[in-house]
Each structure stands twice: as C-alpha cells, then as structure tokens.
Amino acid sequence: MKGTGYFYCLFVLVTATWFTQQSDFPKLTGPYLGQKPPGMTPEVFAPGIVSTPEFREYSIFDFKDRLYASFRTATGAWGTPIDLSQRLNLPEGEMLPTLSPDRRYLFFCNRWDIYWVSAKIIDELRPTEARKGASR
After folding, report:
1. pTM of the prediction?
2. How many whole angstroms separate alpha carbon 91 and alpha carbon 67?
3. Range name among 49-63, 87-101, 118-132 with the lowest pLDDT average
4. According to the per-residue pLDDT averaged within each range, which of 7-16, 47-56, 59-68, 85-94 is highest?
5. Can you give the residue ranges of every domain in the chain?
6. Which residues, listed in sequence order, are joined to residue 84 by a DSSP beta bridge?
7. What pLDDT band is residue 17 in, cutting at 50, 70 and 90?
8. What angle do CA 94, 98, 104 make, to 5 degrees?
9. Which of 45-54, 89-98, 108-117 has the lowest mean pLDDT?
10. In the chain, which ranges are E strands?
11. Within 10 A of 120 (CB to CB), how many other CB atoms are there?
C-alpha cells in the first residue's frame, strides 16, 4: 500500500512538472527521450536539456523524512544543508522533491499530499557566499 502511494505521488509530481514546461522546450520523443541507450558507464542524461548547468549550483533533496537545500560554495564544494522542512513548517515524511523545468516552482509530496511552492524560497535561503557565485 505504501509503495502505491509513493508511485502515485511521483506520478503526480512528474505530470505537474510536465504541464509547467515552457512552450519552446524541444520535443523529446522515442525511447530515452531521443538519447542513446545507456551503456555500462554512467553518463549525464540529456545534457543541455534535462541536465543543465543551472541545476548544479544547488541541490534539493529529502533525507530522513526532512526536505533540504544545499548550495555550492565558492570552492565548488557543497555547503551545509539547510532544513526546508523547518522553514516551510512541514511535518516529517518522505518528500520526493522536484523543480519545474522553468525553475519557478518546487513540487514535493508530504504525507500523501502534493505541495508546490515558489522556488524563490531557494534564493531566500541561499547563503551570502553562494549568492556571489550563483549564475542566475
């Protein structure tokens, strides 16, 4: 039952993200969205389309039923994670975060409900050191 709920949350998050895509986004069709099938060596998936440099300046993730943001420092290392769950007053639970392709919204599940919030929250939490190096 729990696995079905997670699948449902993930399906809704992916669908919501898909509907927020910009109209000028290239059409990705076929197996692996037009990318060559993966081999035995890990590769970046859809560079410039799905995997873009702007998504490398910070990371949104869940860990031990909390939602976190971590930012790159001036040295390129990851900074100390910031607890988004506390800032957004969320109860504990798996979050499954994802950003919309236009980076304007953060979607996540919490206790079987799906939430979204302006991604401006990410910039508000960005440490001063990380702001200086941000490419936005």
Report:
1. 0.58
2. 10
3. 49-63
4. 59-68
5. 2-19+51-133
6. none
7. low
8. 135
9. 45-54
10. 58-63, 66-71, 82-83, 98-99, 105-110, 113-118
11. 11
Give residue 55's Cα distance to chain centre.
8
66 has which bridge partners?
A: 63
Angle at 105 between CA 25 and CA 97, to 5 degrees: 100
Question: Three-class SS of residue 78?
Answer: strand
Distance CA 86, CA 42 (A): 35
**Cα 76 from Cα 79, distance rounded (Å):** 9
CA dihedral (128, 129, 130, 136) in degrees, to 10, reads: 70
| Helical ranges in the chain per DSSP H | 2-19, 84-87, 120-125, 128-133
In which residue are the tokens 């037009």 written? 34
- The alpha carbon of 127 is separated from its chain's Cα centroid by a whole number of angstroms, namely 18
List of residues 6+ apart from 40 with CB closer than 8 A: none
